[in-house]
Design brief:
The complex is a heterotrimer. By secondary structure, chain A is of the alpha+beta class. Chain A has three domains: about 55 residues, ADC-like domains (N-terminal domain of TfIIb), CATH 2.20.25; about 35 residues, no CATH class; about 40 residues, no CATH class. In chain A, a hairpin with a 2-residue loop joins strand 2 and strand 3. By secondary structure, chain B is mainly alpha-helical. Chain B is flat. Chain C is an alpha/beta fold. In chain C, helix 4 links the parallel strand 5 and strand 6. Chain C is globular, with a radius of gyration of 19 Å. The chains are: A alpha+beta, B mainly alpha, C alpha/beta. At the A-C interface, strand 1, strand 2, strand 3 and helix 1 of A face strand 2, helix 2 and helix 7 of C.
Amino acid sequence: MEFKTVLSFCPYCGCGCGLLLEVLDGKIVGTLPSKTSPVNQGKLCVKGWTVHEFVTSPNRLTKPMVRQGDGLQESSWDEALNLAAARLKEIKEKYGPDSIGVLTSAKCTNEENYVLQKFTRAAIGTNNIDHCARL
Amino acid sequence: MTFLKKLLEFSGIHPERLRTRWVSSAEAVEFVHEVSAFAEEIKNLGPNPLRAKPKEAA
Amino acid sequence: MSQKIKEHVQKLLTEGKIKGFFALREENGNIMPHLFCDPKELDHLSLGDWKKSGDTRYPLNQLMIRLAIAYPNETFAVLARGCDERGLRELFKWKQLAEDRVVLIGIGCPDELAKACECEKPFPDSLLEGPQGTKAENEKVASLDKMDLEERFTFWETEFNRCIKCLGCRNICPMCFCNECTLEEANLIDTGEVPPANPTFHLVRAIHMVGRCIDCGLCEEACPADIPLRTLYKKVTEIISKEFGYKTGFSVDEKSPFNIIEVK
Protein backbone atom coordinates (compact mmCIF):
# COMPACT_ATOMS: atom_id res chain seq x y z
CA MET A 1 0.00 0.00 0.00
CA GLU A 2 1.40 3.33 -1.04
CA PHE A 3 -0.29 6.68 -0.96
CA LYS A 4 1.48 9.92 -1.72
CA THR A 5 0.86 13.45 -2.89
CA VAL A 6 3.11 14.73 -5.66
CA LEU A 7 3.58 18.43 -6.31
CA SER A 8 3.12 19.20 -9.98
CA PHE A 9 1.83 21.90 -12.27
CA CYS A 10 -1.27 22.19 -14.37
CA PRO A 11 -0.50 21.31 -18.01
CA TYR A 12 -3.31 23.42 -19.44
CA CYS A 13 -2.93 27.19 -19.74
CA GLY A 14 0.11 29.37 -19.24
CA CYS A 15 -0.67 30.33 -15.62
CA GLY A 16 1.12 27.29 -14.22
CA CYS A 17 -1.07 26.67 -11.17
CA GLY A 18 0.55 24.42 -8.58
CA LEU A 19 -1.36 21.29 -7.82
CA LEU A 20 -0.95 18.06 -5.90
CA LEU A 21 -1.56 14.73 -7.56
CA GLU A 22 -2.97 12.07 -5.26
CA VAL A 23 -1.27 8.80 -6.15
CA LEU A 24 -2.57 5.54 -4.70
CA ASP A 25 -0.56 2.40 -5.45
CA GLY A 26 1.03 3.97 -8.51
CA LYS A 27 -2.17 5.32 -10.01
CA ILE A 28 -3.26 8.97 -10.08
CA VAL A 29 -6.64 9.08 -8.37
CA GLY A 30 -7.24 12.72 -7.55
CA THR A 31 -6.11 16.33 -7.63
CA LEU A 32 -5.80 18.98 -4.95
CA PRO A 33 -4.69 22.60 -5.32
CA SER A 34 -1.36 23.50 -3.76
CA LYS A 35 -1.95 26.05 -1.01
CA THR A 36 1.67 27.13 -0.98
CA SER A 37 1.88 27.94 -4.68
CA PRO A 38 2.09 31.72 -5.15
CA VAL A 39 0.38 31.52 -8.55
CA ASN A 40 -2.95 30.02 -7.51
CA GLN A 41 -2.84 30.19 -3.69
CA GLY A 42 -4.88 27.04 -3.11
CA LYS A 43 -7.41 27.59 -5.92
CA LEU A 44 -7.91 25.87 -9.27
CA CYS A 45 -10.19 26.23 -12.28
CA VAL A 46 -12.30 23.34 -13.51
CA LYS A 47 -9.54 22.18 -15.88
CA GLY A 48 -6.96 22.09 -13.11
CA TRP A 49 -9.30 20.17 -10.82
CA THR A 50 -9.82 17.45 -13.42
CA VAL A 51 -6.21 16.88 -14.45
CA HIS A 52 -6.24 13.38 -12.99
CA GLU A 53 -9.16 12.40 -15.23
CA PHE A 54 -7.39 12.80 -18.56
CA VAL A 55 -4.21 11.08 -17.42
CA THR A 56 -6.01 7.77 -16.98
CA SER A 57 -8.67 8.35 -19.62
CA PRO A 58 -9.48 5.31 -21.80
CA ASN A 59 -9.72 7.74 -24.75
CA ARG A 60 -6.01 8.45 -24.76
CA LEU A 61 -4.09 7.19 -27.77
CA THR A 62 -1.50 4.59 -26.92
CA LYS A 63 -0.37 3.72 -30.44
CA PRO A 64 -0.02 5.65 -33.71
CA MET A 65 -3.24 5.44 -35.71
CA VAL A 66 -3.78 5.79 -39.45
CA ARG A 67 -7.12 6.65 -41.02
CA GLN A 68 -8.39 3.97 -43.37
CA GLY A 69 -11.76 4.60 -44.89
CA ASP A 70 -14.07 5.70 -42.10
CA GLY A 71 -12.07 4.28 -39.24
CA LEU A 72 -8.70 4.44 -37.58
CA GLN A 73 -6.28 1.51 -37.72
CA GLU A 74 -3.34 0.88 -35.43
CA SER A 75 -0.04 1.30 -37.22
CA SER A 76 3.67 1.68 -36.54
CA TRP A 77 5.52 4.94 -35.95
CA ASP A 78 7.41 4.56 -39.21
CA GLU A 79 4.28 3.96 -41.24
CA ALA A 80 2.42 6.85 -39.61
CA LEU A 81 5.28 9.35 -39.90
CA ASN A 82 6.08 8.37 -43.50
CA LEU A 83 2.44 8.77 -44.45
CA ALA A 84 2.16 12.19 -42.76
CA ALA A 85 5.37 13.44 -44.39
CA ALA A 86 4.39 12.17 -47.84
CA ARG A 87 0.89 13.65 -47.70
CA LEU A 88 2.07 17.03 -46.39
CA LYS A 89 4.67 17.24 -49.16
CA GLU A 90 2.02 16.34 -51.71
CA ILE A 91 -0.41 19.00 -50.44
CA LYS A 92 2.31 21.63 -50.25
CA GLU A 93 3.34 20.91 -53.84
CA LYS A 94 -0.17 20.85 -55.22
CA TYR A 95 -1.78 23.72 -53.26
CA GLY A 96 1.15 25.72 -51.89
CA PRO A 97 2.52 26.06 -48.34
CA ASP A 98 -0.28 28.38 -47.18
CA SER A 99 -2.79 25.62 -47.64
CA ILE A 100 -1.37 23.97 -44.54
CA GLY A 101 -2.08 25.17 -41.01
CA VAL A 102 -0.74 23.96 -37.67
CA LEU A 103 -2.61 24.06 -34.37
CA THR A 104 -0.56 23.62 -31.24
CA SER A 105 -1.58 23.57 -27.59
CA ALA A 106 -0.92 25.15 -24.23
CA LYS A 107 -0.50 21.58 -22.99
CA CYS A 108 2.72 21.28 -25.05
CA THR A 109 5.99 22.35 -23.51
CA ASN A 110 7.66 25.56 -24.71
CA GLU A 111 10.26 23.40 -26.40
CA GLU A 112 7.63 21.39 -28.29
CA ASN A 113 5.92 24.60 -29.41
CA TYR A 114 9.26 25.97 -30.58
CA VAL A 115 9.87 22.91 -32.73
CA LEU A 116 6.34 23.12 -34.14
CA GLN A 117 6.65 26.74 -35.17
CA LYS A 118 10.07 26.05 -36.68
CA PHE A 119 8.57 23.17 -38.60
CA THR A 120 5.64 25.31 -39.77
CA ARG A 121 7.66 28.32 -40.83
CA ALA A 122 10.93 26.74 -42.04
CA ALA A 123 9.97 23.26 -43.18
CA ILE A 124 6.50 23.92 -44.55
CA GLY A 125 7.06 27.60 -45.28
CA THR A 126 3.86 29.18 -43.93
CA ASN A 127 2.86 31.51 -41.10
CA ASN A 128 -0.35 29.57 -40.49
CA ILE A 129 0.37 28.53 -36.95
CA ASP A 130 -1.94 29.12 -34.01
CA HIS A 131 -2.71 27.85 -30.61
CA CYS A 132 -5.71 26.44 -28.74
CA ALA A 133 -5.62 29.24 -26.16
CA ARG A 134 -6.45 31.79 -28.85
CA LEU A 135 -9.69 30.02 -29.78
CA MET B 1 -40.15 23.74 3.93
CA THR B 2 -39.21 25.59 7.11
CA PHE B 3 -35.60 25.29 6.15
CA LEU B 4 -36.12 26.22 2.53
CA LYS B 5 -38.09 29.37 3.39
CA LYS B 6 -35.37 30.53 5.75
CA LEU B 7 -32.68 29.84 3.17
CA LEU B 8 -34.59 31.79 0.50
CA GLU B 9 -35.04 34.65 2.93
CA PHE B 10 -31.31 34.73 3.62
CA SER B 11 -30.67 34.81 -0.13
CA GLY B 12 -32.96 37.82 -0.52
CA ILE B 13 -36.01 36.04 -1.92
CA HIS B 14 -39.31 36.56 -0.13
CA PRO B 15 -40.15 33.31 1.69
CA GLU B 16 -43.86 33.71 0.96
CA ARG B 17 -43.14 33.02 -2.72
CA LEU B 18 -42.86 29.37 -1.72
CA ARG B 19 -45.88 27.40 -0.50
CA THR B 20 -46.86 23.77 -0.03
CA ARG B 21 -50.44 22.60 0.18
CA TRP B 22 -52.01 19.14 0.04
CA VAL B 23 -55.15 19.20 -2.13
CA SER B 24 -56.95 16.10 -3.32
CA SER B 25 -58.10 15.87 -6.93
CA ALA B 26 -61.60 15.52 -5.52
CA GLU B 27 -61.37 18.94 -3.91
CA ALA B 28 -61.55 20.98 -7.09
CA VAL B 29 -63.11 24.05 -5.44
CA GLU B 30 -60.42 24.17 -2.74
CA PHE B 31 -57.69 23.79 -5.35
CA VAL B 32 -58.98 26.71 -7.41
CA HIS B 33 -59.32 28.82 -4.27
CA GLU B 34 -55.78 28.01 -3.09
CA VAL B 35 -54.16 28.76 -6.42
CA SER B 36 -56.10 31.97 -6.98
CA ALA B 37 -55.37 33.24 -3.48
CA PHE B 38 -51.69 32.36 -3.84
CA ALA B 39 -51.48 34.05 -7.26
CA GLU B 40 -53.03 37.18 -5.76
CA GLU B 41 -50.58 37.19 -2.84
CA ILE B 42 -47.48 36.84 -5.00
CA LYS B 43 -48.75 39.53 -7.37
CA ASN B 44 -48.80 41.83 -4.37
CA LEU B 45 -45.19 40.95 -3.60
CA GLY B 46 -44.21 42.48 -6.91
CA PRO B 47 -42.06 41.10 -9.73
CA ASN B 48 -39.75 38.24 -8.80
CA PRO B 49 -36.17 39.59 -8.52
CA LEU B 50 -34.93 36.44 -10.25
CA ARG B 51 -36.64 37.53 -13.45
CA ALA B 52 -34.69 40.77 -13.65
CA LYS B 53 -31.54 40.92 -15.76
CA PRO B 54 -28.59 40.14 -13.45
CA LYS B 55 -26.33 43.07 -12.63
CA GLU B 56 -22.73 43.10 -13.84
CA ALA B 57 -20.30 40.96 -11.87
CA ALA B 58 -18.38 42.87 -9.21
CA MET C 1 4.03 22.34 19.06
CA SER C 2 4.38 19.04 17.27
CA GLN C 3 6.65 17.15 19.67
CA LYS C 4 3.85 15.40 21.59
CA ILE C 5 2.21 14.43 18.32
CA LYS C 6 5.43 13.02 16.85
CA GLU C 7 6.04 10.89 19.94
CA HIS C 8 2.48 9.65 20.13
CA VAL C 9 2.30 8.76 16.43
CA GLN C 10 5.72 7.15 16.48
CA LYS C 11 4.47 4.86 19.23
CA LEU C 12 1.29 4.00 17.31
CA LEU C 13 3.29 3.19 14.19
CA THR C 14 6.00 1.09 15.84
CA GLU C 15 3.39 -0.82 17.85
CA GLY C 16 1.55 -1.55 14.62
CA LYS C 17 -1.66 0.04 15.93
CA ILE C 18 -2.00 2.15 12.77
CA LYS C 19 -0.94 1.62 9.18
CA GLY C 20 -0.34 5.32 8.61
CA PHE C 21 -0.93 8.84 9.90
CA PHE C 22 -2.69 11.40 7.69
CA ALA C 23 -1.18 14.80 8.29
CA LEU C 24 0.92 17.33 6.40
CA ARG C 25 4.56 17.41 5.38
CA GLU C 26 6.84 20.33 4.70
CA GLU C 27 9.10 19.99 1.69
CA ASN C 28 11.14 22.76 0.03
CA GLY C 29 8.84 25.45 1.39
CA ASN C 30 5.68 23.67 0.32
CA ILE C 31 3.16 22.09 2.66
CA MET C 32 1.06 19.21 1.42
CA PRO C 33 -0.95 16.24 2.71
CA HIS C 34 1.11 13.18 3.56
CA LEU C 35 0.51 9.68 4.78
CA PHE C 36 3.23 8.97 7.32
CA CYS C 37 3.87 5.22 7.40
CA ASP C 38 7.49 5.36 8.58
CA PRO C 39 8.27 7.13 11.89
CA LYS C 40 11.45 8.57 10.34
CA GLU C 41 9.29 10.69 8.03
CA LEU C 42 7.87 12.54 11.04
CA ASP C 43 10.86 14.90 10.93
CA HIS C 44 9.02 16.64 8.09
CA LEU C 45 5.69 16.88 9.92
CA SER C 46 3.78 20.11 9.49
CA LEU C 47 0.56 21.03 11.29
CA GLY C 48 -0.63 23.31 8.49
CA ASP C 49 0.86 26.63 9.58
CA TRP C 50 2.79 28.24 6.75
CA LYS C 51 2.69 32.03 6.87
CA LYS C 52 -0.31 32.19 9.21
CA SER C 53 -1.81 29.73 11.61
CA GLY C 54 -3.83 27.08 9.77
CA ASP C 55 -3.38 28.59 6.32
CA THR C 56 -2.41 25.29 4.71
CA ARG C 57 -5.18 23.02 5.91
CA TYR C 58 -6.31 20.28 3.56
CA PRO C 59 -9.28 17.88 3.59
CA LEU C 60 -7.45 14.99 5.25
CA ASN C 61 -10.72 13.18 6.02
CA GLN C 62 -11.40 13.03 2.29
CA LEU C 63 -8.07 11.30 1.67
CA MET C 64 -8.79 8.89 4.48
CA ILE C 65 -12.10 7.90 2.87
CA ARG C 66 -10.19 7.11 -0.32
CA LEU C 67 -7.83 4.81 1.55
CA ALA C 68 -10.65 3.27 3.59
CA ILE C 69 -12.37 2.19 0.36
CA ALA C 70 -9.16 0.62 -0.96
CA TYR C 71 -8.00 -0.82 2.38
CA PRO C 72 -11.08 -1.24 4.60
CA ASN C 73 -9.32 -3.40 7.17
CA GLU C 74 -6.50 -0.99 7.94
CA THR C 75 -6.53 1.55 10.75
CA PHE C 76 -5.31 5.08 10.12
CA ALA C 77 -4.63 8.04 12.37
CA VAL C 78 -5.49 11.55 11.24
CA LEU C 79 -4.50 15.04 12.32
CA ALA C 80 -7.72 16.66 13.44
CA ARG C 81 -8.75 20.15 14.49
CA GLY C 82 -12.13 20.98 16.01
CA CYS C 83 -13.76 21.07 12.59
CA ASP C 84 -12.13 17.79 11.51
CA GLU C 85 -13.54 16.05 14.58
CA ARG C 86 -17.00 17.36 13.69
CA GLY C 87 -16.43 15.98 10.21
CA LEU C 88 -15.36 12.57 11.45
CA ARG C 89 -18.41 12.26 13.72
CA GLU C 90 -20.69 12.93 10.76
CA LEU C 91 -18.71 10.65 8.41
CA PHE C 92 -19.10 7.80 10.90
CA LYS C 93 -22.84 8.40 10.97
CA TRP C 94 -22.95 8.64 7.16
CA LYS C 95 -21.12 5.30 7.04
CA GLN C 96 -18.19 6.68 5.06
CA LEU C 97 -15.62 5.74 7.70
CA ALA C 98 -15.54 3.11 10.43
CA GLU C 99 -15.07 4.48 13.92
CA ASP C 100 -12.88 1.58 14.99
CA ARG C 101 -10.52 2.16 12.06
CA VAL C 102 -9.77 5.82 12.79
CA VAL C 103 -7.50 7.26 15.47
CA LEU C 104 -7.93 10.97 16.05
CA ILE C 105 -4.80 13.03 16.76
CA GLY C 106 -6.30 16.25 18.04
CA ILE C 107 -4.89 19.76 17.87
CA GLY C 108 -6.49 22.96 19.12
CA CYS C 109 -6.53 26.14 17.09
CA PRO C 110 -5.08 29.40 18.43
CA ASP C 111 -7.47 32.29 19.13
CA GLU C 112 -6.33 34.23 16.06
CA LEU C 113 -7.42 31.37 13.80
CA ALA C 114 -10.57 30.61 15.78
CA LYS C 115 -11.67 34.23 15.44
CA ALA C 116 -10.95 34.34 11.70
CA CYS C 117 -13.03 31.16 11.31
CA GLU C 118 -15.72 32.35 13.77
CA CYS C 119 -15.45 28.76 14.98
CA GLU C 120 -18.11 27.26 17.19
CA LYS C 121 -15.56 24.99 18.88
CA PRO C 122 -11.92 25.37 17.78
CA PHE C 123 -10.62 22.19 19.41
CA PRO C 124 -11.53 18.48 19.32
CA ASP C 125 -12.61 16.59 22.44
CA SER C 126 -9.60 14.28 22.14
CA LEU C 127 -7.05 17.07 22.36
CA LEU C 128 -3.35 16.22 22.27
CA GLU C 129 -1.69 19.55 21.51
CA GLY C 130 -2.74 23.15 21.37
CA PRO C 131 -5.16 25.34 23.30
CA GLN C 132 -8.80 24.85 24.20
CA GLY C 133 -9.81 27.99 22.38
CA THR C 134 -12.90 30.10 22.96
CA LYS C 135 -16.01 30.10 20.80
CA ALA C 136 -16.08 33.04 18.42
CA GLU C 137 -19.07 35.22 17.51
CA ASN C 138 -20.85 34.79 14.17
CA GLU C 139 -20.49 38.31 12.83
CA LYS C 140 -20.57 37.60 9.11
CA VAL C 141 -24.03 36.00 9.19
CA ALA C 142 -25.30 38.64 11.64
CA SER C 143 -24.30 41.51 9.36
CA LEU C 144 -26.20 39.92 6.48
CA ASP C 145 -29.24 39.29 8.65
CA LYS C 146 -29.33 43.01 9.40
CA MET C 147 -29.78 43.89 5.73
CA ASP C 148 -33.26 44.04 4.26
CA LEU C 149 -34.50 41.52 1.70
CA GLU C 150 -33.61 43.57 -1.37
CA GLU C 151 -30.12 44.43 -0.11
CA ARG C 152 -29.44 40.78 0.59
CA PHE C 153 -30.67 39.75 -2.85
CA THR C 154 -28.35 42.25 -4.54
CA PHE C 155 -25.49 41.14 -2.32
CA TRP C 156 -25.81 37.48 -3.19
CA GLU C 157 -26.58 38.09 -6.86
CA THR C 158 -23.38 40.10 -7.22
CA GLU C 159 -21.31 37.50 -5.40
CA PHE C 160 -22.69 34.51 -7.32
CA ASN C 161 -22.19 36.29 -10.64
CA ARG C 162 -18.45 35.75 -10.31
CA CYS C 163 -18.79 31.98 -10.09
CA ILE C 164 -16.86 30.11 -12.79
CA LYS C 165 -18.29 26.71 -11.88
CA CYS C 166 -14.89 25.26 -11.10
CA LEU C 167 -16.64 23.07 -8.50
CA GLY C 168 -13.69 23.71 -6.22
CA CYS C 169 -16.04 24.19 -3.28
CA ARG C 170 -17.46 20.74 -3.81
CA ASN C 171 -14.17 19.08 -4.73
CA ILE C 172 -12.32 20.25 -1.64
CA CYS C 173 -15.19 19.73 0.78
CA PRO C 174 -14.25 16.94 3.23
CA MET C 175 -17.94 16.13 3.62
CA CYS C 176 -18.81 15.76 -0.07
CA PHE C 177 -18.56 12.09 -0.93
CA CYS C 178 -21.48 11.42 -3.27
CA ASN C 179 -20.59 9.37 -6.33
CA GLU C 180 -23.22 11.18 -8.35
CA CYS C 181 -23.37 14.89 -7.65
CA THR C 182 -26.48 16.97 -8.29
CA LEU C 183 -24.33 19.85 -9.49
CA GLU C 184 -23.17 17.72 -12.41
CA GLU C 185 -26.60 16.38 -13.29
CA ALA C 186 -27.32 17.79 -16.77
CA ASN C 187 -31.08 17.58 -16.24
CA LEU C 188 -30.87 19.89 -13.24
CA ILE C 189 -27.95 22.23 -13.88
CA ASP C 190 -27.39 23.49 -17.43
CA THR C 191 -24.00 22.74 -18.88
CA GLY C 192 -22.03 25.36 -20.79
CA GLU C 193 -23.39 28.22 -18.70
CA VAL C 194 -21.15 30.50 -16.66
CA PRO C 195 -22.00 31.84 -14.17
CA PRO C 196 -24.23 28.88 -13.36
CA ALA C 197 -27.90 29.53 -12.60
CA ASN C 198 -27.86 32.46 -10.18
CA PRO C 199 -28.71 31.76 -7.32
CA THR C 200 -30.09 28.25 -7.86
CA PHE C 201 -26.72 26.56 -8.26
CA HIS C 202 -25.46 27.84 -4.92
CA LEU C 203 -28.74 27.33 -3.11
CA VAL C 204 -28.75 23.71 -4.29
CA ARG C 205 -25.29 23.23 -2.85
CA ALA C 206 -26.34 25.03 0.32
CA ILE C 207 -29.25 22.63 0.79
CA HIS C 208 -26.90 19.72 0.40
CA MET C 209 -24.75 21.15 3.17
CA VAL C 210 -27.52 20.60 5.71
CA GLY C 211 -26.28 18.39 8.50
CA ARG C 212 -23.08 18.03 6.57
CA CYS C 213 -21.16 21.31 6.70
CA ILE C 214 -18.69 21.30 9.56
CA ASP C 215 -17.58 24.89 8.97
CA CYS C 216 -13.98 24.11 8.08
CA GLY C 217 -13.84 26.98 5.56
CA LEU C 218 -11.96 25.03 2.89
CA CYS C 219 -14.68 25.88 0.33
CA GLU C 220 -14.17 29.61 0.66
CA GLU C 221 -10.39 29.16 0.56
CA ALA C 222 -10.71 27.17 -2.67
CA CYS C 223 -13.01 29.64 -4.43
CA PRO C 224 -11.06 31.55 -7.11
CA ALA C 225 -13.83 34.17 -7.15
CA ASP C 226 -13.77 34.86 -3.40
CA ILE C 227 -17.46 34.16 -2.96
CA PRO C 228 -18.39 34.13 0.75
CA LEU C 229 -19.56 30.52 0.61
CA ARG C 230 -18.69 29.80 4.19
CA THR C 231 -21.07 32.51 5.35
CA LEU C 232 -23.89 30.97 3.30
CA TYR C 233 -23.29 27.51 4.72
CA LYS C 234 -22.90 28.95 8.22
CA LYS C 235 -26.43 30.30 7.87
CA VAL C 236 -27.62 26.87 6.73
CA THR C 237 -26.10 25.28 9.83
CA GLU C 238 -27.68 28.01 11.98
CA ILE C 239 -31.13 27.36 10.51
CA ILE C 240 -30.85 23.64 11.18
CA SER C 241 -29.64 24.29 14.69
CA LYS C 242 -32.47 26.73 15.47
CA GLU C 243 -35.34 24.97 13.69
CA PHE C 244 -34.39 21.33 14.20
CA GLY C 245 -32.10 21.50 17.21
CA TYR C 246 -29.41 19.66 15.28
CA LYS C 247 -25.79 20.81 15.60
CA THR C 248 -23.66 19.25 12.90
CA GLY C 249 -20.77 17.20 14.21
CA PHE C 250 -21.56 17.54 17.90
CA SER C 251 -23.35 14.28 18.55
CA VAL C 252 -21.82 10.85 18.23
CA ASP C 253 -25.08 9.02 17.63
CA GLU C 254 -27.81 11.53 16.80
CA LYS C 255 -28.14 11.63 13.02
CA SER C 256 -28.86 14.72 10.94
CA PRO C 257 -32.55 15.10 9.98
CA PHE C 258 -31.42 14.62 6.37
CA ASN C 259 -29.45 11.45 7.06
CA ILE C 260 -31.65 8.49 6.37
CA ILE C 261 -28.86 6.03 5.65
CA GLU C 262 -29.51 2.58 7.04
CA VAL C 263 -26.90 -0.13 6.67
CA LYS C 264 -28.10 -3.68 7.29
